[in-house]
Amino acid sequence: MSSIEEIYPISRADLDLVRAFPKGFLWGAATASYQIEGAIKEDGRGPSIWDEFSATPGKVFQGHTGEVATDHYHRVPEDIVLMKELGLSAYRFSIAWPRVLPQGRGAINAAGLDFYERLVDELLAHGIAPFVTLYHWDLPLSLHKVGGWTNRDTAYAFADYADIVTKRLGDRVANWITLNEPWCSAYLGYGCGIHAPGIQDRQAAFVAGHHLLLAHGLALPRMRANIKSVAQVGLSLNFTPTYASDEREETKRDTELTDLFVNQWFISPIAHGRYPEGLFEALEVTPPPMQDGDLELIGAPIDFLGVNNYTRDVIRGGTIPARPDESVKVGPVPGACYTEMGWEIHPQSFNELLLRLYHEYGMQALYITENGAAFKDTWNGDGVVHDPRRIAYIQEYLQAAAEAVEQGVPLRGYFTWSLLDNFEWAEGYSKRFGIVYVDYQTQRRIIKDSGHWYKALLSAHRDASTL
Ligand code: FCB
Question: Is the beta carbon of 32 within 6 A of some atom in ligand 1?
Fold first, then answer.
């Protein structure tokens, strides 16, 4: 008889780990359109802000662009076979708005909707639940030309786009995410400008942030009208928990202000229907223009919160209060380990974050919609990529999540970022997050050790759930 180690090539500790997750818990991997699809000029797709931004010299590492990316647009069947091979029960991907509406509004590009319909049908045929994100940063360029997210009209255009997509796919897709990380769209895109559209204007970031939230709020009822009553809608927010480096009053103050800016800016309007107290003053901006009823729309109940988390920040206070976007981050923290992104590996903060979202913000259903790590992976041309540090990272973060489940947090699923190595925004292809390696010369996919390990973990969970 074969031993348990032969059946599941994972440790006994891993077997205990999976048992902490309830039956029906979803295991997935995540991607985003611009990061994997390529084919930016095919079948009627319109240009996006990321096409323009990445083509601008100096914006992305070594001038990399998403023009080819992982060529997923042409490799959907092959990539779904890969997902099946890994045993994923769910797959999170995003729809490129400019594929559906090349000008952002108006004429629909039938080929764009057809592409996503084929993708969804193929996933369903393989028993994989689609988690569809409507906006993962690739804003149609024509909307940008008239102000992008700083223009209130963009929120209405988004709601129309959400309506169009859910009219087509709402009979099949049961899990919807309006926006991915609006904090990044607003602040990285309009505040510090390291992401598209590359604007550096703090005030604009807060205006954009409000319109992103409004887009979510306006889309919710439109989407609900088109999807099945059992289907769910949520959004994915990024969180980086902040910790004080010492006990000084100044440190406590700057840590709290950074938390306000990094973690509370978006969850507070979503969960409580109001911006957190002191946010605009701390950032030295005026409140964004709001109309009556905006906050009610934004604060309407969601069915789940998608949580994206990779790391934490450790803050040290200065003698004068730092504006939270300029607070002093301590690093390297003695004894800590870091990923290739320079992000500290700190699973304990992940556990505390999940508890906070449940207790302080009352979130009744949570999915980890992104968690993972970039490391320098090397491939020697055969079928193997050893990435023990990624396995350790996911293992430790899952352990922290398992503890949260035991502490009563209603966690329903986990998506690792990412299924495939891909275009990592301003870092281009220099950072690999996949559990599957992509050889960009040939587009060959090689399952990394972490992918094999994840597969074994998922299969152990499936078997434990049927007992
Ligand atoms: C998140 C993004 C995702 C990916 C990871 C590493 O902020 O949502 O697209 O780039 O970071």
Answer: yes
Residue 20's region, left for phi above 0, alpha for psi from -120 to 50, else beta, is alpha
What percentage of the chain carries pLDDT values higher than 90?
96
The answer to whether 370 is a known catalytic residue is yes
User: Of 181, 250, 344, 424, which one is the catalytic site residue?
Assistant: 181
Question: How many residues comprise the chain?
Answer: 467
DSSP count for the chain of H helices, then E strands = 18, 13
The alpha carbon dihedral of 314, 326, 357, 16 has a sign of negative
pTM for the whole structure: 0.98
Which among 72, 17, 38 has a CA at the least distance from the CA of 419?
A: 72
Q: Is-catalytic flag, 403? A: no
Angle at 35 between CA 30 and CA 36, to 5 degrees: 80
CA of residue 374 relative to chain centroid, distance: 15
33 and 95 in contact (C-beta within 8 Å)?
yes
pLDDT digits (tens, 9 = 90+) for 61-79: 999 999 999 999 999 999 9
The interaxial angle of helices 449-466 and 76-86, nearest 10 deg, is: 60
**Ligand 1 pocket, residue 421 CB under 6 Å:** no
- Centroid of ligand 1 to alpha carbon of 42 (angstroms): 25
